[in-house]
Amino acid sequence: MLSEQILNNHSEFLSTLRHRFLDETRVEALGKFAQIGFPTKKDEEYKYTNIKEIIEKDYNFFPKESHNITKEQLDELHLGEENFDWIVFVNGVLHKELSKISIENAEFLSFNYALNDENHKDVFDKYFNTIAAKDLAFTNLNQAYCKYGFFLKVPKNVVIEKPIHVFYLSQNQEENTFYNTRNLLIVEDGAKVEVIESHHNFDETYVFTNSVTEIFTYPNAKADWHKLQNDNDTSYLVDHTFAKQERDSLTTVNTFSFGGKIVRNNLDFIQNGSNINSFMNGITIIGKEQLVDHHTAVHHNQPNCESYQNYKGIFKDKSHGVFNGKVFVDKIAQKTNAYQQNNNVLLSEGATIDTKPQLEIFADDVKCSHGCTVGQLNEDALFYLRARGISKKEAQALLLFAFANDAMQNIDIEPLKEKISKLLTEKLEVSIEF
């Protein structure tokens, strides 16, 4: 059982780390985890998502570092990224020989290196674990065991022109493997950066990734984070992303979920100033017995801010989707404009979706809307296309592509948009010319 391993392995894990300035907080976090325990279906937030399959397995906490990832394997994962930077972690270790890093005028470090660097202690004291929720099992578990991931600080008015694609790869693991990845992004006043994150398991053994990301966007800054989730059926992912924004900033988190056996995405936006824009978009298309769960929350704490959530889901076979979106509007957050929409299409009788948009509004001068739909393809539209010589399969794919397409409209990275479009057509099992 994973819970027993967690409590038994912690002393051994701490002994492998060279630094000591997080040890006390790690022990404290482990104690909180022991009190909370893993969520069950009796917990409201996990009512529709059963993680029993994940936590009943045993895992190796110390992955083998050796690998034989080839350039060809890596090329298959790229998006046509000749003009990108990319950062490759294999079995938790940053591999510069597989990476292309040309970032200038910004601080980029592997998370493990940053933890070991006394020069960054003040930065970690100021930012690390300050917006991540303190009352959740998985965030406490991550704090207790985090070692892998990256730290990026973009200084004032620095614009990083090239998107940065961060790959987390796992290979050559003979046992089920447990990763706790931790990312910290700081985008100072007037700066700009775009990050793409993807996880890939090359083994038949199971990989469980418990990831926590903290994003800080300062005044007039722009931070975009794109999650491309297209892993195999022996992969589990629980992701928590927390974004704190200051006045006049823009932050976007896009989540594209096409693979993985069980995927749980938790996304929290904290608006800490006026004239803030927060964007969340998601596309999910899964089949077989896969499960993808999106839990979002936007905290409107100041006036004259906007948030936009648009999640589309397409579910085949016996797959299961979950969407729970929350919008909180504080009593001083007048002139708030919050939009939330979740639309879903079920392609099979065995496919299911549980959706629950929520608004909690304590201000009176706001414009807030939410809604959800669950249905099948429009028969009239299918008939119209088939009457013009288009096969049923192609007609279905065209309608589904159009259904999902508007959730891609704010992607500024053209190769990423093309990759998402191609993945959509692959999942729809039909060829569509763009």
From TrEMBL:
SUF system FeS cluster assembly SufBD N-terminal domain residues:
8-166
Q: Which residues form the SUF system FeS cluster assembly SufBD core domain?
A: 174-403
Domain of life (superkingdom): Bacteria
Which InterPro entries has this protein been placed in? Fe-S_cluster_assembly_SufBD, SUF_FeS_clus_asmbl_SufBD_core, SUF_FeS_clus_asmbl_SufBD_sf, SUF_FeS_clus_asmbl_SufD, SufBD_N
Pfam families reported for this sequence = SUFBD_core, SufBD_N
The similarity comment for this entry is:
Belongs to the iron-sulfur cluster assembly SufBD family.
Q: What is this protein called?
A: Fe-S cluster assembly protein SufD
